[in-house]
User: Fold DNA-binding transcriptional MocR family regulator from Variovorax soli.
Amino acid sequence: MTHTSFVNDRYANAPGSPIRELKRFTELPGMISLAGGYPAPELMDSGGLQKIFSSLSGTAFASALEYGGTEGAIALRTELARLSSSRGNAVEPGEVLTLSGSQQGIDLLARTLLSQGDTVLVEAPTYPAAISAFRFAGAAIHQVATDDEGLVLEDLERALIRLKPKVLYTVPTFGNPSGRTLSEGRRRELLKLAVRHQCLVIEDDPYGDLWFDQAPPPSIYSMRNTVDGAERVVAYLSSLSKTLAPGLRLGWMLGPAELRRACVLAKQTDDMHASTLTQAAAAAYLAQGLFSENLPRLRATYGKRAKALARALSLQLGKRIEFTAPGGGMFVWGRAPGVDTAEWLKAAIERSVLFVPGSAFYAQDADHSTFRLSFASQDEAGIATGVSRLEEALRAL
Amino acid sequence: MTHTSFVNDRYANAPGSPIRELKRFTELPGMISLAGGYPAPELMDSGGLQKIFSSLSGTAFASALEYGGTEGAIALRTELARLSSSRGNAVEPGEVLTLSGSQQGIDLLARTLLSQGDTVLVEAPTYPAAISAFRFAGAAIHQVATDDEGLVLEDLERALIRLKPKVLYTVPTFGNPSGRTLSEGRRRELLKLAVRHQCLVIEDDPYGDLWFDQAPPPSIYSMRNTVDGAERVVAYLSSLSKTLAPGLRLGWMLGPAELRRACVLAKQTDDMHASTLTQAAAAAYLAQGLFSENLPRLRATYGKRAKALARALSLQLGKRIEFTAPGGGMFVWGRAPGVDTAEWLKAAIERSVLFVPGSAFYAQDADHSTFRLSFASQDEAGIATGVSRLEEALRAL
Assistant:
């Protein structure tokens, strides 16, 4: 009897996440990882969160063990609405869809919006797990060029006209991997283009809270009432993974009611709802003001680390690479002209330092001389040593 | 400008979960719910679980706040492998895929196995959220008849020959909604049929641990080595939601490596991994033996409640309905000949009692005289009152 695979074509030959593949190297002794976008463990308020669990009343704890609504617990939705409103995204608790991490929002939207053969526009470069989610949903992915102000609108408009995409996916604020931020002017123009071409914008914003010296421009979502018809064409995703703790698996979606309803249907057949227990803990943590207390510490520390990385790169690799220092987030994106950064990574691993070659972040036509560095989970000394090792590795090529 | 919906056809007009729709009635004062398959809150070891959170060391708690592997934390996979092995499903920790509830396993398998137009066989009646997951994946659903021993194999074989289905979905042990258990003989025959027709069996087993007087037959999965080629054609799903706490959102999958690999890819783009924090708590709870300690109490209490329900139904409704008393699980499935149970439900809600009309559990050709009752979350007094109200409601029709 011959056996064929039960797995369908979309999943049978799909590659795994290149960033998750690197994770196994992070456990090697002495390894300095500038690879994953993982928040610094020492900056998470572990003590504060553990106290929350002990301080929940017996009744509150017990009810957090039960099944909950797919949209999320009202206590958490209330806090997320408050947090969103304080960032300019004015919403009611009933308009918040709680997610098991914002990544899930990309997946739910991909499943509920796309059909085989639909086109999705993404930035070049963009977040690889978004590319995967859209591919698994059967979409064709097309890249739009970016510059230091984010998406290049002329290129976007050409793509909108030529390809009639259903969705544009963007990380406009301290982007992953680019670290770039779409300017306020372009945000408004982008909204007009989205309305004109009836293309849904998925604004993925896990990093917006992590600004260093000045707050980023208002979210695209927050501008939806300034452009006629725009409230129908923007969905907004954010996360507690970078600012509170990824292990809670909590994120949220804001957007048109028809989209939230469809995503609720999809989530009902998936994990039904985010953990009611981690929701209860996060709600209490936010309600007690601990989130707002910890945030300045995150911003200050990541800001210092970003500057340390930029300084070390300029000093030690300034002649070999190009990069822009970010104003927030977790990433520095760069180019090493004439270098295949996959080869650079091999030499780097031998010298106990990790980063992500840039090719992982393209849907097509990868620029193999690009790379992404994260400064989030290394202190300044680790960053300095890491960059020295990168420099040695580059010299050894 | 005309606006069309952004939502694709599969999700645009899909109905929500009929059981979740009933949930809003459960909060009405005095309502007795025999509807949802929700574990009894008073039987969950809330105190024990809350202590686990306080007793995790600072280091353990902190590391449970970080990102984790998609397959799950090794501590939990070790405990789930041990639990599985003690139930006859001998596996290594590395073969356990941790899920955010077993429902997610249905969804991941649906997405990774099915393509538009594939056929899935289900039992008549079956679990509605499984029907939804398969429909959303583009599959055509076909029902197979059942009797008191579960799936009728002659009907199954005819469907396998005629429809060449890719997947058979079954809840063979204390089924939802039927309460029925597939006999051991039929399990083995079913495996042979699955191998002969190369149809993947998804064995969904959230209730197997909740037996009353005697343990159920071995799982289909545990028989995979007794039939040539069968190890390639069974995936097994189970859950901590019914036996520990649904709010943790934890379940697991066992099965062929190619399926687990595909599901890992799909999960990477979805919620990435189950909450590392609830995984850590569940692992500690299981490792300390508290799970095995609490289980006899669940079995005894649910057993008493099942018998109380069967007794009350016989006494008060014996002439109007047919039903079989289950040997485990959470459900009694019945028929009220000549009655439209949707009408019965309306009259029941007026009398403050809830149940689920049976039509929700069919993929096609619903028998509108059927109904599902859950005895799990009502004590014996509540069950007696609930059945009296059901009787009044039926009389009022």
Remarks:
- Residues 15-44+292-396 of chain B form a domain with the Aspartate Aminotransferase, domain 1 fold (CATH 3.90.1150.10).
- Chain B has two domains: 15-44+292-396, 48-288.
- The longest helix of chain B spans residues 290-317.
- The two ends of chain B are 50 Å apart (CA to CA).
